[in-house]
Structures
1.
Amino acid sequence: MDRLLVLVRHGQSEWNLKNLFTGWRDVGLTDQGVIEAKAAGQKLKGENLTFGTCFTSALVRAQRTLDLMLEELGQTGLPITRDEALNERDYGDLSGLNKDDARAKWGEEQVHIWRRSYATQPPGGESLRDTGARVWPYYIHRIQPHVMRGEGVLIAAHGNSLRALIMALDGLTPDEVVKLELPTGLPILYRLNEDTSVAERRELAV
Ligand SMILES: O=C(O)[C@@H](CO)OP(=O)(O)O
């Protein structure tokens, strides 16, 4: 049985372009983001992948990315579940601030810790651990059963909600996850074993 799972970070958003902390703020894709989402869909099509169901967050940049990929794939009409559990990490008080301004104010190292560490919360926001505490149970209870039935699952979500998921799937340590960076629009393909462990992991460079 093909226990297929594909993860895709949304295409470039308006606030990625403006270099602003985004988190739960609901911003759209840029033209470049649309191009990236379509390219991801073409890549999945080129790999002859067939999906049975899709998941995305409650935020439009991920939802639009999913819609665009499905159009390119020619697989519109699939069930789509949209859930806050897959939302980006909540950046709290940093949301809407410019990342370079934040570095000037709090220092390079502190901002890097807020952005990439496992356990440190940005002021008023979620650590990656907090994000994982909602993403991982959602994956186990709602998403993984579809994968295990061989339905083929496509997820469009966010840099940090996917880092949290990948940390668990790949068994990364808190030190290792600091170095994990997810480009926009890059599909990451997993195939699972019968015992739910990872049989295959491949980045589908577009
Ligand atoms: O602003 C955000 O919400 C995220 C993703 O764009 O940024 P960062 O790379 O700092 O985690």
Note: The CA atoms of residues 20 and 97 lie 5 Å apart.
2.
Amino acid sequence: MKTIIDKIWDAHCVRPESDDAPAVLYVDLHLVHEVTTPQAFDELRARGLAVRRPERTLATLDHSTPTLPANPDGTLPYKDAATRNQVDTMLANCREFGITLHGFDSGQRGIVHVMGPELGATQPGMTIVCGDSHTATHGAFGALAFGIGTTEVGHVLATQCLLQRRPKTLAVTVNGTLPPEATAKDLILHIIGVLGMDGGTGHVIEYRGEAIRALSMEGRMTVCNMSIEAGARAGLIAPDEVTFAYLRGRPNAPQGADFDAAVACWKQLVSDPDARYDREVVIDAADVRPTVTWGTNPGQVIAVDQHVPAQRTAAAARSLSYMGFDGDAPLLGRKVDVVFVGSCTNGRIEDLRAVAGVLRGRKVASHVRMLVVPGSEAVKRQAEAEGIHTVILAAGAQWREPGCSMCLAMNGDEVGAGELCVSTSNRNFEGRQGKGARTVLASPATAAACAVAGVIADPRQYPPLVEEAA
Ligand SMILES: CC(C)[C@H](C(=O)O)[C@@H](O)C(=O)O
Ligand code: SF4
């Protein structure tokens, strides 16, 4: 009796682990971006090695790319020479090693964890790796997807295999139905609050239960994306009809009769009814409220209308002092300086629809700087086709080019020292969004409500406005 995690592991295990060596795991898809690959390609060059399977390697540009439009002379407004150099190095490496790069003008560039799924490159049952800690996003499709380090990126480029110790398994079962005001982001923040920021260490999480099944693919990606924020090595959701419907017709997915044959195989990718997990946690979806972080790690969460906890530990006191919040006091009403909507957690079309729903007919508070950054070119196109960008611009927010942007502030999109940013991204560490920047993680609906209110606000106070009949 096996879990889906065991099934995928066993199907890819080239050599099982022994006391003195990890297992050798075959990798179906290797995603690469400009930040964690330069030394790996250098290593290949130094050893005279080729990329073992370039057709299973897919590249993008996301972390260092500017989100402002091109300069009048056609050049891009890079933050500095280092970021431009990272992108140029990636372009040269992909050319030299024969790797498909979805770069500028491809129409398909995007944050690596947004682009893979929308191309249909991410598929159930695959092993997927990327030199990036949020690779678990791809687990939403029932894939075993790990973040790896730059040395391992080199190993995978050269061998298409990865050395890994077999992970422990953790079932997170979410029973019942989410209340209408709670989104997938609120759910995963709530889950991390329950598990703690290292509660998943050494484990791969399988998210399951009625409330998980009810999520769209976008919502499932949001949930799996943040598995690492609970310390887990990966997180996944068994594929079902929602998964298959999402994948059908995507360019890198199997086509026609091959797709139907693939679905027949993918349907086997479920945990057997009496499969045993190393650990199980049960969550009641009805308990989930619009949830935000109050501190400097993603496990420090409260429902938005709760009080920040009293300072009980030195770590909590340090978090509060960095954030400039008081213990045992409400977050609601705290002044907000910046709102960031985007990232591989919440930069997809449904997220932008939720933001437009709140902003339509309303204005961003005059002291708030709000950036809306689509997760990919495809998301941007879709949003513009739906008129979402018009709503965002009319509200006074900025509509940018796709990329990681202010999620980690590598490209020049930064929050100022001491400023408070409500962000739909996944990390609220000290300095994550800029030196001295303070981050409150939230759902797109909550972020948009805060932008309008100009303070930390409850999204339930900002329901979509119904247009009056003419
Ligand atoms: C730049 C990259 C290595 C990093 C990661 O691994 O996650 C980034 O994507 C992040 O979110 O901090
Ligand atoms: S959007 Fe943020 S979390 Fe996602 S890959 Fe980019 S920097 Fe990392």
Note: The mean pLDDT is 97.
3.
Amino acid sequence: MTDIITVEATDLTRIYGGREAVSHVSFSLKKGEVLGFLGPNGAGKSTTMKMLTGNLAPSTGTVKICGIDMLENPKEAKALIGFLPEQPPLYRELTVNEFLTIAARLHRVSSGHIKAAVERAKERCGLTEMGKRLIENLSKGYQQRVGIAQAIIHNPMVVILDEPTVGLDPIQIRDIRALIKELGGEHSVILSTHILPEVEMVCDHVQIIHKGQLVFNGSIDVLKQQRKGNRLLLGLGQAPAQEQLLQITGVERVESLDNGLLRIHHTAGQSPAQRLVEAAVAGQWGMYQISPDQTTLEEVFVQLTFQEAA
Ligand SMILES: Nc1ncnc2c1ncn2[C@@H]1O[C@H](COP(=O)(O)OP(=O)(O)OP(=O)(O)O)[C@@H](O)[C@H]1O
């Protein structure tokens, strides 16, 4: 990964009928980075993708692709982007070769380079053997590969994929995710999805959007750090009354789990682990386990996106 900024979105806002569908979204993306754009249905992902790709004008804010302003120089900026919309524009009655040739022309690949561009895109997307097949006869997973192949045919700096694994079976999903990860080496990739594990598997960086606003923007590692959360698992042979545990500084809540363990919820940044160990020794509670209790990424997501509802 380099420090070249390929996408810079500043203060993007889109208003529909007086309502902000996307509200003051800013972020940047570096070359080689895979960014997961994560949010529940209706969060504003597609609206943001359309603004990034120049298919929808923002109400306010700017998009720059490799420093080129999308509003001022749309043709130049768009030439640097490959886009796979949620509904891929596939011509089902064409063969893979025919379709990719048209896509190359539309992306202004010069005629002398079209054949090589088609071969390379097929090779990168695992379609080498499929050139003469009609798109309508391909499985959905292979059709999706064709969709990705058309997005990278002109070797763009930035590839934007809107929900690319929806409707695929588990093996197809695995293959497409591997392909997306691989694309990150040469391109910057933005992957819009509502699937958290997908982001975890494929992306370096994640942004979570909820009701049009970014509620998280950071590396996957930072998100995983949040999973460490503010909880401990405690195993005690002779557990004292909960009141006694609650008297220990930092302990906020105690939960009894089905497996006999206690889940200790504690104040952020104030792990009571050492105090618990000391109290357990002094009180002869028979401590056999104390460990961090990681929240799942799903829980982090719910915390971040539904905190208003909680
Ligand atoms: N053309 C439009 N006119 C009015 N409202 C719209 C329009 N397009 C989207 N919206 C609204 O803007 C909000 C964001 O929609 P958007 O499609 O960007 O969400 P999304 O995160 O992509 O969801 P999904 O995964 O369901 O496509 C939603 O409340 C939606 O109803």
Note: The mean pLDDT is 89.
4.
Amino acid sequence: MELQDVMYEKREGIAKITINRPEVYNAFRAQTVQELIWSFRDAWDDNRIGAVILTGAGEKAFCTGGDQKNKGDSGYDSSGGLGGGIGLEIENLHRTIRAMPKPVIAAVNGYAIGGGHVLHVLCDLTIASETALFGQSGPKVGSYDAGLGSAYLARIVGEKKAREIWYLCEKYTAQEAKEMGLVNKIVPQDELMGTAEDWAGKIVEKSPTAIKMLKYSFNADSANIEGISQIAMASLGMFYKTDESAEGRNAFVEKRPVDFKKFRQ
Ligand SMILES: CC(C)(COP(=O)(O)OP(=O)(O)OC[C@H]1O[C@@H](n2cnc3c(N)ncnc32)[C@H](O)[C@@H]1OP(=O)(O)O)[C@@H](O)C(=O)NCCC(=O)NCCSC(=O)c1cc(O)c2ccccc2c1O
């Protein structure tokens, strides 16, 4: 596959996948998600690879979720089909990160917001730069991830904190995220990739079968949430067609305060 939105490299048993859309803070469009799936699947299929690092280009953002400028009145830019009605194959991307038998390390170099936050949550490990900022934003922009993005998040940070994260849509520092158990390690920005590579290298030295079985075992406990995700994504496909959802996207794109008052019933 010819990659436009993603950079993909493999070295010494480690695959590195970089979302490369810094002009929109590494927000993803349908093409980006397809390229991410392709890259993860290649790393999955390559027996020389033992661990994957996911990061974002530049120093501003890891990923800020769905590209709001590429979102039309019925979802993102590639509607229907495998996108399940939301126009993005995000559910397949989530499943691929979880199902691949090799640990995925998120190297969070800036904002991890919205669907970008969900991506790091689903990675096996998260290493953050001191300047990283974390948070959900769906309810501000007319969206939600009512599957793995909420229920699996609650497994990590606890029910109260997960509800706070989604209901208030605040941003949290790397230190706050670490205290919640969302981040494994914080390092200075210029040490981020070196540390991620160091951790990945330590994994690559281990028994691949042991690592695979451990990942499957950790996943098994939350596997039922994938069923909830299917229902959530299907409902989102319908929600994206509403004026309420459009108001959230329009307010962001038009850089104005959002007004959901008229949708309160
Ligand atoms: C991340 C920010 C807080 C940064 O704010 P700051 O003021 O520092 O910078 P700017 O706002 O000026 O941003 C710089 C530049 O980048 C553009 N940009 C940033 N994020 C996006 C984005 N997501 N889409 C499109 N463009 C973006 C921004 O417009 C600027 O460009 P200019 O040309 O105008 O200079 C702040 O940027 C921010 O809050 N961003 C929005 C983040 C957001 O709301 N994301 C969530 C969207 S919903 C989502 O991600 C989502 C994805 C899924 O896949 C789902 C799947 C299933 C269920 C739900 C999903 C879901 O909700």
Note: The chain has one domain: 6-190+208-220.
